[in-house]
Amino acid sequence: MNSASRRAVFVDRDGTVNEEIDYLCEPDQVRLIPGAAEAISRLRKSGWLVVVITNQSAIARGFLSEDTLSAIHQRLGILLAELGTRVDGIYYCPHHPTEGMAPYRLDCECRKPKPGMILRAARDLNIDIVKSIVIGDRLLDMETASRVGARRILVKTGYGAGESVNLNAQAAPEYIADDLLDASNWILAADGEN
Ligand SMILES: [Mg+2]
């Protein structure tokens, strides 16, 4: 496979990889969702890049510094490493269009549902977006994928069970998974059919 055709699974962070809590602001609050590390491991072993894309407006709102966010992501990396895996990148948006102060109070291009994080990761890692899949617990994640023609899977962890899905919507998920592990099984089963 040449480097320009790499496929990625873009995973939302909170409610998809780690348990959703309102404004996760401390490294020791990070808890992996059961099966998430196994899902990431299996996808990577099958040649998928796994890239986290996460809105972190807690930074704009002043609840969280970028240093603490970095410590949170280090903690996430340690928990994944303990289970034998890692992600290929973490992209976050620290902005909010109307809350907080400069430089974070910004109508940016990266806050989901805008696709800036996907576009940046695609440039950095030579990802073919149309062959890639976004997995998240919010319709917002599905909308983000739809804007750049990526495939999409909604997980029922986090806020996912409470989202009212319109399967006729343009940004409807292709599959609704119980969790990230179920999503990865679905992806790898579909790979096996091709
Ligand atoms: Mg989420």
Main features:
single chain, alpha/beta, binds magnesium ion, Rossmann fold, globular, 194 residues, 6 strands
Main sheet record: 6 strands, parallel
User: Looking across the biggest beta sheet, what order are the strands in?
Assistant: 3-2-1-4-5-6
- Let me know the average pLDDT: 96
**Chain oligomer state:** single chain
Number of helical segments with 4 or more residues? 5
If classified by CATH, what would the architecture be?
Answer: 3-Layer(aba) Sandwich
Uncertain segments: none
Put the structure in a nutshell.
With 194 residues, the chain is an alpha/beta fold.
Describe the protein in words.
The protein has helices spanning 36-45, 66-82, 116-125, 139-147, 180-193, and strands at 8-11, 49-55, 89-93, 133-136, 151-155, 175-177. It is α/β, with parallel strands linked by helices and 194 residues long. The protein has a single domain, classed as HAD superfamily/HAD-like (Rossmann fold). The protein has a six-stranded parallel beta sheet with strand order 3-2-1-4-5-6, sandwiched between helices. Helix 1 (36-45) runs parallel beside helix 5. The longest helix is centred in the middle third of the chain and has 17 residues, at 66-82. The radius of gyration is 16 Å and the shape is globular. It starts with 7 loop residues before the first strand and ends with a helix. The mean pLDDT is 96. The protein binds magnesium ion. The site of magnesium ion has 8 residues, from loops.
Write the layout of secondary structure elements.
Layout: E1 8-11, H1 36-45, E2 49-55, H2 66-82, E3 89-93, H3 116-125, E4 133-136, H4 139-147, E5 151-155, E6 175-177, H5 180-193
Helix pairs in contact: 1-5
The structure holds magnesium ion.
Magnesium ion binds next to loops.
